[in-house]
Fold this protein.
Amino acid sequence: MIKGISVCNPVDIEREYLMFTVDYAKKMGFDHLQIIGPIHDHIKGNIEGITPFRKYSQFNDEKDEAYMQMNLRVVNEACKKASEYGIKTYFWHHELAMPSRFKEVYPEILNDYQDVEITHPLVKDFLENKIQDFFCAYPYFDGIILTLHETQIPLLKLKNQKLGKIERVQYVTQILYDSCKALGKELIVRPFASIAEDYEMMTAAYEKISTDLMIMDKWTQFDWSLTMPSNSFFSKIKKNPLFVEADIFGEFFGKGHLPLLLKDHISEKFRYCGEFAPAGYVGRIDRGGGIPFGDVNEVNLHLFHAALNQSSMDEAMDAFFKEKYKDAAEEVKALMLPTEEILKKTIYTNKYYFTELSHFPTLNHCKNHFYFEMMTKDCILASNEWFIPKNWNRGSIESLIAEKEDAKLQAQRLFEDLQKLEGRMDTEEYRKLWVKFLNLKLVTALWQELLLAFVNYTAYFETRDAAYERALNQALDEMLSLNEIGVGKLGNRFYGSLFMLAGASKPQSKVVPFVEEMRRCFAIEKAEAQRFEKNTNVLDYIVCGGAMEGHKLMKEVNFSDTLERSGSLCRIPGNRNGMQWSRINAHGWFSYEIAVTPHCQNIIKVEMEGNGGKIDCKITLGDQETVISREAAGKEEFVFTYDETAGNETVRIRFDKISGYVPCIFTVCSMKP
């Protein structure tokens, strides 16, 4: 069985830490090491960022030369050492990735939609040479870990391609597989698909290439949260070997800033994955610059190691605490045992993917993950996105509040118990525990107030009772108070609310701008609702980008952001990064159901604005499509007619991005006949 770890996830490679992890892998008996690096950095990330091109050397000026030269020294040093230890090494890579000027130098690769046509011979030649250049520069690597997502040129989103999705996956993967095989290297693929149809498509493509092609996937379905189910997609892998990827760091559970013991999680996932007879496991041990070594959460590495080697997890856990905390071992273990359950109660909302604990959420994140809609009386979630459990039943609002209250009280008790250990253990070790458990106490309280903000915001718009507006502001005030305590006691170690602003001399709170934005949005949405409700000719209305837009909102996962624009709220069919012309041309959509009058000709009005001086949008009303593409300046009202002949009381209206000029949709309303 392969026993692996992955490191430098996803941050700049640094020599001291990389060499440390190579030695750690040797010490613990791991035989497989994956180096991730800054995969989301379009200059430093992937194999392009560390590889000097030969045939396509004219694009080397797009690289960070100093970072590349450092990698040529450090990564080769680490991989050579790992090879001497008998450890295989692999580098993470995402496709489709090409230099930003490639289509300018070779415009013939573009199709009539101005997207890259992947079957063009130049694309194949570039990919083949890129692989050859990489292994020439880094001969000690044994292979590449390939993901076909999260790139500036999204393979599955490209328009007007000669190949369908499954053929595209097969075509690009085949090029990379053949290139690696010709050099005696391995290719390991990650489906990274959140929809069953896409997963089946990708695994079918991999199977056609070779049944020896190893498929690596997460042991939680869709993403890394502990609230996600075990990966049922494993059953769709028919003939290829399965390689299980595990998160041992707690990416969505504090990124190492909060105390977390994953014994139950690791035990259950090994039991589940064992049913599929995997070829091995690789555990992510770090994230975003945080590392597991040297503090209490390192216990999870020992638990993972024990499970890999089918030895006693209890004995491994006890040995870790005894060695690190001496006479206080049992007390520290007792503090850690409830942490997984406490964090689940914080992040769960009756088993719904609430706000992830990788950072304090943005208001855009909250709107896009339906945190307001789930607090409504009827609680209709129509989007069917991957983070919504099947047949999810919210239960009562009171039960949700009680869930958060229980997590808060448990965290408070743990912090009180920890303080009894002061003076009984090493001062520095006590201080590190104090920081983690105080963070836990503050975060559980902060997330409870966050829930109350959603509850009262929603209740106001459903009742117009001013008491809920006062309760909303009380919850927001309490969030500011908790933030002030955290910053005062912990400074830049206060988790859940701090980040470094560009050019700032010290960390700045994320809670403060969140509270300010929620208050602004509430005022805007309140005024817009009053405007529509005063108009007696309006049948139904939607404030797009508002917390209460509802109307059975559906959207492309992660590609429909909300914005404040010119003092108004809006939603865009795409993401914020697409608000400028980019290397991808068009993807992103969202839709609503809006009320209409049956058996009548209906008038639908849409307030919309172009971005960058041009408006480009496809609007689908029922089954009728309208494309708007022209120069535009400022917000405009567009009027559509819709003949309802089937006796329906609603119609779905959909907005599609069709170019890099992202349309901003402010309001939609239907008029009475």
Observations:
- The chain is about 40% helix and 20% strand.
- The two ends are 69 Å apart (CA to CA).
- The mean pLDDT is 92.
